[in-house]
């Protein structure tokens, strides 16, 4: 029998940059001890949600073995690390909705962006946390997808799960393609957004129409890059996996930010909120993974 996975996280740095007015998440005792600390977000008063991004990368910055068919998901980068998937589940619990690019959905069509899907071992603890926050009383999760083309694999199981509200943000042309495909299940919501102001509009609609205060962006790097270039990402939760993936022109493996380049004077800067590590029980020592939580600071 395999042993249930149990995350072992220890804190190296926890220098919260937030003030006394910020909202304490008040993790339940169980989650507090698993995460080795609390999580604080600022109060959301703006017309846009507070946006977290979550990724795992190799030490050389690669986020997918994209050229290796069937092994191109994020799990291969983390080596299916227990602490990484626990943090993914924790963030999905605290967020009101998860947003993913259409390409990630096309590459991982069997995935569901819920806490228990990624880390079933802590399902009860995640549900207790949701109840404590009195969010999503109906027990419903919101998974949102962004596509310009309207090319969406509607046969993916996420679209038929009664516990997940699915919203697809697309352009007028994308919506036309979806309609013509005749594949969209009735329960899937389509939101049509102008291409020019796409990213900002998506966030405005999520906040105003769906009451999303905390949004979790789970990639991929093209969608992350486009939101980042519009100064819309507030935090990056980044796991650094202790491997080197390498790269070449032929393999063309993606790094964390794709499709955007920043001038040296305009590059977003990162400030550490917390840094944690895994604990290696066998060796009784610091593990080799690092779990960073960064605040993003955009130059004027
Ligand atoms: N290591 C990790 O933590 C991690 C996390 C997530 C994903 N991944 C990996 O990343 C890879 C996929 O990443 P990706 O960068 O190719 O794709 P992506 O960011 O997941 O999706 C890109 C697609 O999103 C749509 N889109 C909508 N609005 C957009 C905008 N403003 N800018 C750009 N795209 C927009 C477009 O879809 P249409 O083509 O339909 O128009 C575009 O092709 C996969 O291998 C996945 O496993 C890794």
TrEMBL record:
InterPro entries: DHFR-like_dom_sf (IPR024072), RibDG_C (IPR002734), Riboflavin_Biosynth_HTPR (IPR050765)
Keywords: NADP, Oxidoreductase
Keyword NADP: yes
Transmembrane region(s): none
The keyword NADP is annotated on this UniProt entry: yes
Associated pathway: Cofactor biosynthesis; riboflavin biosynthesis
Gene3D superfamilies xrefs: Dihydrofolate Reductase, subunit A (3.40.430.10)
Domain Bacterial bifunctional deaminase-reductase C-terminal: 49-249
Gene Ontology molecular function: 5-amino-6-(5-phosphoribosylamino)uracil reductase activity
Coiled coil: none
UniProt superkingdom: Bacteria
Pfam families reported in the protein's UniProt record: RibD_C
GO biological process: riboflavin biosynthetic process
Name assigned to this protein: Bacterial bifunctional deaminase-reductase C-terminal domain-containing protein
Provenance organism: Candidatus Liptonbacteria bacterium CG11_big_fil_rev_8_21_14_0_20_35_14
């Amino acid at each position: 029998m395999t042993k249930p996975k149990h995350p072992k996280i220890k804190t190296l740095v926890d220098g919260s940059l937030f003030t006394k007015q910020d909202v304490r998440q008040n993790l339940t005792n169980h989650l507090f001890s698993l995460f080795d600390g609390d999580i604080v977000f600022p109060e959301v008063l703006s017309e846009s949600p507070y946006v977290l991004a979550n990724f795992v990368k190799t030490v050389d910055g690669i986020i997918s073995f994209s050229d290796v068919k069937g092994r191109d998901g994020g799990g291969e980068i983390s080596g299916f690390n227990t602490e990484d998937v626990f943090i993914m589940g924790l963030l999905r619990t605290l967020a009101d909705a998860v947003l993913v690019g259409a390409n990630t959905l096309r590459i991982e069509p069997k995935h569901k962006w819920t806490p228990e899907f990624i880390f079933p071992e802590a399902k009860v603890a995640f549900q207790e946390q949701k109840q404590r926050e009195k969010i999503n009383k109906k027990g419903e999760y919101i998974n949102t997808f962004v596509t310009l083309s309207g090319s969406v694999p509607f046969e993916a199981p996420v679209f038929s799960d009664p516990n997940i509200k699915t919203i697809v943000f697309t352009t007028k042309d994308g919506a036309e393609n979806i309609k013509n495909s005749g594949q969209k299940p009735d329960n899937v919501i389509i939101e049509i957004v102008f291409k020019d102001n796409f990213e900002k509009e998506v966030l405005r609609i999520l906040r105003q129409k769906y009451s999303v205060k905390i949004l979790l962006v789970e990639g991929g790097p093209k969608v992350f890059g486009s939101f980042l270039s519009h100064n819309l990402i507030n935090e990056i939760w980044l796991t650094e996996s202790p491997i080197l993936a390498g790269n070449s022109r032929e393999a063309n493996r993606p790094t964390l930010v794709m499709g955007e380049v920043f001038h040296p004077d305009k590059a977003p800067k990162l400030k550490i909120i917390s840094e944690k590590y895994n604990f290696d029980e066998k060796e009784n020592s610091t593990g080799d993974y690092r779990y960073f939580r960064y605040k993003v600071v955009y130059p004027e």
